[in-house]
Amino acid sequence: MTHDLTLPSGTPTAEGLAERALRDPHRPRFHFTSPGGWLNDPNGLTHWRGVYHLFYQYNPLAAAHDRIHWGHATSTDLVHWTDEPVALVPGTDGPDRDGCWSGVLVDDGGVPTLVYSGRHGDRELPCVARGSADLRYWTKDQSNPVITAPPEGVDITAFRDHCVWREGSGEDAVWRQLIGSGIRGVGGTAFLYESDDLRDWRYVGPLLTGDASQNRGELDWTGTMWECVDLFRLGEDEKAGSTEVLVFSAWDEGTTHHPLYWTGHYQGDTFTPTALNRLDYGGRYFYAPQSTRDEHGRRIMFGWLQEGRTDEANAEAGWCGVMSLPRIVTLGADGRLNQAPVPELRLLRREHLQIPAGPLETAYTRLHTVRGDQLDIETTLHLAPGASARLVLRETPDGAERTVVEVSRAHDGTGTLHLHRETSSLDPTVDNEPRYGELPLEADGRVDLRVLVDHSALEIFANGRPLTARIYPTRPDEAVGVGIGADGDVTLERFDAWQMASAFTDGPRPLWP
After folding, report:
1. Catalytic one among 4, 24, 41, 334?
2. How many CB atoms are closer than 10 A to CB 431?
3. How far apart are CA 305 and CA 210, in angstroms?
4. Which string of b and e fits 281-316 if b means at least 16 CB within 10 Å?
5. Phi and psi of 19, rounded to 5°?
């Protein structure tokens, strides 16, 4: 995908990017980040011969969205990552001379193959590259672009990003592809194509088209263009499951909005939707997600955590963009998606801290035994009707800076997850808008809350619903306090916290491994 950012005048060059990035107190330590420079969408996500491969949109020359490459990292445990050689570099000429944009990796008869968007001027067209057995070296196809123009006779808003899969079996098997787009004056869409060899593609038609005239300005507005479409099936074995999921990120005229998903039924050349839902309550802070089914049968998803500070601040820091923690996506009993961090993240847990269970009888208590900016917190609460509980994070001793996670239960039994960032930072230039969403509750008002704090990266999971955001305290060394409080009848069943180790070795990582 793309969005419009340019390098500010006077921005430092690539020299020293990794060193500056390492010194930045807002840089996460157990989320994946690029060695330096710019990172956005996860690409080519796959579990290949026992190794997880994460490719991503990457500019190794500056912390700005310009001349995009494909970065590459590998892991055997989804926690510790090794930087690999850059996979794709824009050509000196040809269809991707202005950037190798988002795409996927597929297994073409044992040959790893990338399908990605190449940009030349204002044209974005599908390209193909074949890889070595270890996925470290790639050769672009001489026939690129493999689709030479968007569908004829359709006034589109954009045309990029890919979802590719093999459908059918034996001689009847074909490749199918979705390309994110939008029909001007109508709404976002996913164009469906078909091919026998990944090179010659036949246009089938729109798989599904949204209505941009509905809910404009709302948190579930589907936008004028769908970026990073991802179609997959969820069920007991993902072969006979009853639900297909179509994920997309709503975009409009250069502005990234939020990720959404349709549940429904995919058959033939159409997708019949049953419901539209928000994928992450953080909006653009979990954007352009991509998923894969790993060799253990799990649906693993990553998303891009955008920054909430200025382009100038990013350039000075030498880096920009964070990858989410890997998530397992499952289908809940209510027909919506449940999300949770992969259990492998427990490998990074170190010092274990607890507080006693019982009623939360005070409006606020600072937990002097729990402090830090690299934390994994798990707590279970029971809320009576009309009650709310608050978990305070990254608090300075004087309380001037603090971030608040609130869960509440209305008298009618409905629940809300709310992230308050109004006092997260005293810096007036950073984004501090609150984030919120519906919290599913059972009759006993139970809330299973998981919060992962990693410097400026914050991921919250409440009863399977995620909320992702960024925070930038101006006093990062002091903003390490944690507290808890309640209004109304709230019982604390458990509270466990762990200090989290870094997922990377000390020292700057090479920009060109």
Report:
1. 41
2. 18
3. 25
4. bbbbbbbbbbbbbbeeebbbbbbbbbbbbebebbbe
5. -70, -40
- To the query of whether residue 398 is one of the catalytic residues in this protein, the response is no
Name the percent of the chain in helix, strand, coil, to the closest 5: 5, 50, 45
* Residues counted in the chain: 513
For 29-63, the three-class secondary structure string (H helix, E strand, C coil) is: CCCCCCCCEEEEEEEEEEEECCEEEEEEEEECCCC
Q: Which residue, 72, 478, 42, is CA-closest to 301?
A: 42
- Nearest CA to 439 among 467, 458, 459? 467
Tell me the average pLDDT across 350-359. Answer: 96
**Nearest by Cα to 281 from 468, 41, 471, 434:** 468
At residue 493, φ and ψ (nearest 5 deg) are -85, -40
Q: Helix, strand, or coil here: 396?
A: coil
Q: How far apart are CA 462 and CA 451, in angstroms?
A: 9
For residues 263, 118, 62, 113, the Cα torsion angle rounded to the nearest 10 degrees is 70
For residue 145, whether the previous peptide bond is cis, meaning omega lies within 30 degrees of 0, is yes
Considering only CA atoms, give the Rg of the chain.
Answer: 23
Output the six-digit token pair for 105: 């990796």
> 3-12, 179-188, 459-468, 494-503: which has the minimum mean pLDDT?
3-12
Answer positive or negative: Cα dihedral of 427, 431, 433, 434. Answer: negative
Measured between alpha carbons, how far is 282 from 471 in angstroms, rounded to an integer?
12
With a pLDDT cut of 90, the percent of the chain lying above it is 92
**Are 141 and 129 spatial neighbours (Cβ–Cβ below 8 Å)?**
yes
**Which residues in 66-78 are b (16+ Cβ under 10 Å) and which e?**
ebbbbbbbbbeeb
Residues in Cβ contact with 503 at an 8 Å cutoff, skipping those fewer than 6 apart:
29, 30, 31, 32, 79, 80, 81, 348
Label residues 105-130 b or e (16+ Cβ within 10 Å = b): bbebeeebbbbbbbbbeebbbbbbbe
- E strands along 283-373, which residues? 287-293, 299-305, 319-320, 322-323, 327-331, 337-341, 349-354, 358-359, 365-371
Q: Give the pLDDT confidence of 259-279 residue by residue, as tens digits.
A: 999 999 999 999 999 999 999
- Please say whether the dihedral angle defined by the alpha carbons of residues 478, 340, 323 and 73, taken in this order, is positive or negative: positive
| DSSP state, residue 326 | P
The Cα–Cα gap between 428 and 408 comes to 28
Instruction: Report the C-alpha gap between 291 and 254 in whole angstroms.
Output: 24
Closest of 100, 109, 92 to residue 128, by C-alpha: 100
